Amino acid sequence: MSIKPLALLLLLTPGAWAQNLGYGVKLGVPFTDVFSNGGISESSRFVIGPMVEFRLPIVGIEADALYHYVSLHQTSTTPGSGSTWQFPIVGKVRLPATPILKPYGEAGISFRTFTAGGSDLSSESKKGFVLGAGLDIHAIKIHITPELRLTLWGSGHPVLLQTNDAQFEFLVGFSR
């Protein structure tokens, strides 16, 4: 075997990987409250964070780091604000509909951490199962991916603030 084809293959491999690697940002809004205690109202809810995706023609793997900010209003025992970082890792399957529009389904796992009023709510569930569906819109050099995502969290030990076991949200990703 000649060394030239091997050298050519090694030179072209990074370009092939770069075309399959997407990175960008996800934005969204939750449809369900983070906390399930009665009498607590949440406001200023949004989701934002970086995302990275390895894309193949039909399947892909995506990892996100999603920040959820929550402003809480109730009694003096409830913290004034809190946040959660969620780290979902999902496998995606795209239906080859058209070159521009590709519906997809996703499933995977998610991990999270809470803070509220400066304290860590470490006894809450930190693992969940993710299911979602969306549409991959390939517009010139950008992928726009609106999706609906459901995360089913395992049960944790109740503390001052109890979280919902099911989290439903609308997310839009913008990636290269």
Following the backbone from N to C, one meets helices and strands in this order, namely HEEEEEEEEEE
Overall strand count: 10
Helicity range: 10-25%
Q: What is the class in the CATH system?
A: Mainly Beta
What is the average per-residue confidence, as pLDDT, rounded to a whole number?
78
Examine the coordinates and then state which fold CATH places here, giving the name of the CATH topology.
Porin
Helix count, DSSP H or I runs of 4 or more residues? 1
| CATH architecture call | Beta Barrel
Give me a quick take on this structure.
This protein has one domain (21-175): Porin, CATH 2.40.160.20. The chain is 10% helix and 60% strand. It contains 1 helix and 10 strands.
Describe it for me?
The protein has one domain: Porin, CATH 2.40.160. Helices cover 10% and strands 60% of the residues. The chain contains one helix and ten strands, in the order H-E-E-E-E-E-E-E-E-E-E. The chain is elongated and about 60 Å long. About 3% of the residues have low confidence.
